[in-house]
Design the sequence.
């Protein structure tokens, strides 16, 4: 089934077009992005049951962008009618323009756009709204109870489901684009205590689609309980550099946090990315090929056009170890004189568009996981990443993982270290990649921030990789 | 819009509800070096409606609730449809019945900030000028900055007679400082003020520029091992997250935290300083309309308060307090210069310093560390990471006499923590 269009967008489209035209008469470029949608969150835990609309991604509203011949300015709001258009135009011409009076502007060429018009929708098998709140809560409750009952040391199991459908309309002189998208996330967290320490095992599930994701959650409880109980015997990490085998989720975090933020090209404009001076150079092992794009995979960050009206791309970033391209929002691309790649994204209409990742991953290799583990004399198998922070300027790495499993003479010993901090220098890590498994797995359970804010849905992943990593 | 929502709640037969309206106006300036990248203005009006539904099953009373987000452009039919959907959803939320917080009806509380009398666009402009007035050096400078000046009005009404409202003003943002020699590096800083404080932002810029110069001189990571470390500034706010989380009713009720009032949270044998932590209100009311006031969380290392929202507090049989976002820590017996002894590693900045309130570990990759040497010199370091358990180390904390304040923390500028594992060369 295709995701339905928004009545709000469809019925107000003439108003948004009038606003765009009114601005276009006064400015060299004017666009309007209108958004509608809904995010709903379901949770069951020891605290109780929760059903609520989410306010992170599901906001209704619009943003108008104008170019005054030198640079851009934006007005965002969530109340519009035909009668209010003169007032909005007045604010843009008055207060907004006056904010720039004192300052030198960062010169920006006008966006060039080809004529384009379409309405596109993603597909789903089971729409969460059609399945209904009662069945969703019943399923999450059943999953929780079953999982919690597996071991008496488990103090709780939290089960969650979130979905968002969003409807976007992008209007400029040359563009009339509409997209309707649905993604769904599930997650399970199992908790056990060791004295005052709470140990948790976590798994997220994601799909560009609907409640069909709940089938994947079924049956995952025993694995989580086993991991959580193992963590009760974990030891503090012994700092050092290790040969590591990284799970696809850990690979994904390395791809995204350690490297991916560094090729967001708004950072090139600001001189905040070391990658700018490494274009065309070998920065990773020849085994490494990396892609990003809303059209690179079908996951939670797949869409048809970005928040600046640029079509979704499939960008080859690293080709057999050589850095061949970054990804860019439209404004940064215009400043740098490169092609925009459909990576201009906003947390919501309330926020500015930045260059943001979408679906970001390493392509697969040819190795078998068992051979990879067997090749390690002494090292760690890293699983369950929890968070990371970018450092595009200096290519430092900070990634947190919950589990490091000891490998000795090619075999897992059963000894576990937790938690662990991965650090080091990005090219050192990427060049040390010596083995990669065949299958690529992507996950989109979380959200990505730019620095400490601006959250957008992303997916990342890759195959199992073998690399040398400093752990602490 | 509020009247339309309340009318719809009544016509749909929903008896128990709470509506929160938040209107916010924001002026934003984004800079690349000293040039303006883009100015933005936004005006958002949002309504959050919580509907409650009481029901019984097998003689047990339940109070389900569900939350719907509504926007001003919605038609009456859309509003009713969302409310019906939320009310139906509440019937599947089988949470034990509890009594809502006592209703309060008070006059609108006006903002006392000096920002309230200023035009937000002009404030953004003047704040940016103050910020860049401290950016005068050639070798180290502001690479980029974002400034957000917001004015908001919050109105909370409920079916039980609750009716409170307040205004608030804020300037917040972030800046990235850059030093290009001997190594081209950057440092990230956030800021947040509830008044127009030109001197504070100038100080912030000066510190960011000094720190980035030091990072540019740092070329290697510390040697791996255990160090006595100094944490400072906004990292203390993150460190204290352990105490905020473990005393939160939402952690206590499901058994994630075993803490109870009267517990000696640092243990019985405190070798360092005993904790004295207070909550300070940022807004006059919580999201449920509970009046906020200063509350003592921990006194001399003893837990004095379990706090949280109405549902969790009622389940625990304690007074609902609302959620707090600003913490004040008292105390501090040593000056920072006394802490800076040979062998001590002062960690000025991290990629992302984190406190995990579940396992009690604090950790982060080091962006700038200062190692104090026997000969009185200071070695500037970068790279490597720390990973320590506050649960194990909390009885050994020593706080500085020097103080620090931002919008979420007020208290000692620094803390000395012994024997923390550092991964490095």
Sequence:
């Amino acid at each position: 089934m295709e995701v339905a269009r928004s009545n709000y967008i469809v019925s107000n489209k003439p108003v948004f077009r009038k606003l765009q035209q009114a601005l276009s008469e006064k400015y060299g470029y004017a666009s309007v992005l209108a958004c509608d949608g809904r995010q709903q969150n379901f949770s069951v835990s020891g605290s109780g049951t929760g059903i609520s609309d989410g306010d992170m991604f599901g906001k209704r509203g619009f943003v108008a962008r104008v170019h005054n011949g030198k640079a851009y300015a934006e007005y965002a709001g969530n109340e519009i009618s035909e009668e209010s258009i003169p007032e909005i135009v007045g604010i843009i011409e008055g207060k907004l323009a006056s904010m720039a009076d004192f300052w030198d502007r960062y010169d920006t060429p006008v966006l060039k756009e080809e004529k384009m018009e379409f309405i596109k929708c993603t597909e789903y098998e089971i729409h969460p709204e059609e399945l209904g709140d009662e069945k969703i809560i019943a399923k999450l409750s059943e999953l929780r109870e079953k999982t919690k009952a597996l071991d008496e040391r488990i103090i709780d199991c939290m089960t969650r489901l979130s979905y968002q459908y969003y409807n976007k309309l992008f209007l400029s002189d040359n563009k009339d684009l509409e997209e309707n998208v649905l993604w769904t996330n599930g997650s399970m967290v199992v908790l056990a205590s060791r004295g005052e320490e709470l140990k948790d095992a976590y798994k997220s599930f994601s799909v560009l689609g609907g409640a069909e994701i709940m089938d994947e959650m079924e049956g995952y409880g025993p694995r989580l309980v086993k991991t959580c109980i193992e963590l009760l015997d974990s030891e503090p990490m012994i700092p050092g550099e290790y040969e590591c085998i990284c799970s696809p989720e850990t690979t994904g975090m390395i791809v995204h946090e350690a490297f991916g933020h560094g090729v967001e090209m708004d950072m090139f404009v600001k001189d905040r990315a070391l990658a700018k001076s490494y274009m065309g150079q070998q920065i990773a092992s020849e085994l490494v090929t990396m892609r990003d794009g809303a059209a690179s995979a079908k996951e939670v960050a797949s869409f048809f056009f970005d928040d600046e009206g640029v079509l979704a791309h499939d960008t080859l970033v690293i080709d057999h170890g050589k850095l061949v391209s970054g990804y860019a929002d439209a404004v940064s691309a215009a400043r740098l004189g490169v092609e925009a790649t459909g990576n201009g994204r906003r947390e919501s209409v309330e926020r500015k568009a930045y260059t943001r990742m979408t679906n970001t991953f390493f392509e697969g290799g040819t190795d078998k996981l068992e051979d990879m583990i067997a090749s390690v004399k002494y090292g760690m198998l890293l699983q369950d990443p929890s968070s990371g922070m970018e450092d595009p300027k200096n290519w430092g790495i900070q990634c947190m993982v919950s589990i490091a499993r000891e490998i000795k003479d090619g075999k897992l010993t059963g000894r576990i270290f937790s938690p662990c901090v991965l650090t080091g220098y990005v090219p050192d890590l990427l060049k040390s990649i010596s083995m990669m498994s065949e299958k690529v797995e992507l996950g989109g359970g979380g959200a990505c921030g730019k620095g400490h804010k601006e959250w957008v849905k992303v997916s990342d992943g890759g195959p199992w990789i073998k690399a040398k990593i400093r752990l602490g | 819009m509020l009247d339309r929502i309340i009318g719809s709640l009544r016509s749909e037969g929903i008896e128990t509800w709470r509506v929160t309206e938040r209107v916010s106006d924001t002026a934003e300036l984004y800079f690349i070096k000293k040039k303006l990248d883009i100015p933005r203005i936004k005006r958002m009006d949002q309504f959050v409606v919580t509907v409650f539904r009481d029901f019984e099953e097998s003689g047990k009373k339940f109070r389900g609730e569900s939350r719907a987000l509504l926007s001003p452009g919605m038609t009456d039919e859309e509003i009713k449809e969302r409310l019906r959907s939320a009310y139906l959803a509440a019937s599947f939320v089988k949470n034990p019945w509890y009594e809502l917080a006592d209703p309060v009806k008070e006059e609108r509380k006006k903002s006392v900030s000096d920002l309230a009398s200023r035009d937000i666009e002009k404030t953004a402009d003047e704040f940016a000028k103050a910020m860049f007035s401290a950016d005068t050096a050639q070798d180290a400078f502001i690479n980029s900055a974002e400034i957000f000046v917001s004015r908001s009005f919050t109105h909370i009404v409920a079916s039980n007679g609750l009716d409170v409202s307040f205004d608030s003003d804020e300037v917040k943002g972030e800046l990235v400082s850059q030093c290009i020699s001997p190594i081209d590096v950057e440092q990230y800083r956030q800021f947040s003020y509830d008044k127009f404080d030109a001197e504070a932002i100038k100080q912030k810029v000066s510190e960011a520029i000094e720190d980035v110069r030091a990072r540019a001189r740092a070329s290697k990571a510390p040697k791996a091992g255990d160090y006595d470390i100094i944490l400072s500034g906004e990292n203390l706010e993150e460190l204290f997250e352990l105490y905020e989380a473990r005393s939160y009713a939402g952690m206590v009720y499901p058994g994630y935290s075993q803490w109870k009032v009267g517990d000696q949270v640092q243990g019985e044998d405190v070798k360092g300083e005993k904790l004295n932590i207070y909550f300070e209100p940022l807004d006059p009311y919580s999201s449920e309309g509970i009046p906020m006031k200063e509350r003592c969380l921990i006194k001399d290392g003893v837990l004095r308060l379990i706090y949280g929202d109405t549902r969790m507090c009622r389940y625990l049989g304690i007074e609902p307090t609302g959620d707090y976002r600003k913490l004040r820590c008292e105390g501090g017996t040593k000056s920072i210069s006394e802490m800076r002894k040979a062998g001590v590693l002062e960690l000025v900045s991290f990629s992302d310093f984190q406190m995990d309130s579940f396992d009690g570990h604090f950790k982060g990759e080091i962006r700038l560390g200062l190692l104090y040497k026997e000969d009185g010199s200071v070695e500037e370091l970068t790279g490597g990471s720390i990973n320590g358990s506050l649960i194990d180390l909390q009885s050994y904390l020593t706080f500085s006499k020097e103080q620090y304040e931002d919008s979420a923390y007020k208290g000692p500028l620094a803390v000395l923590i012994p024997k923390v594992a550092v991964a490095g060369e």
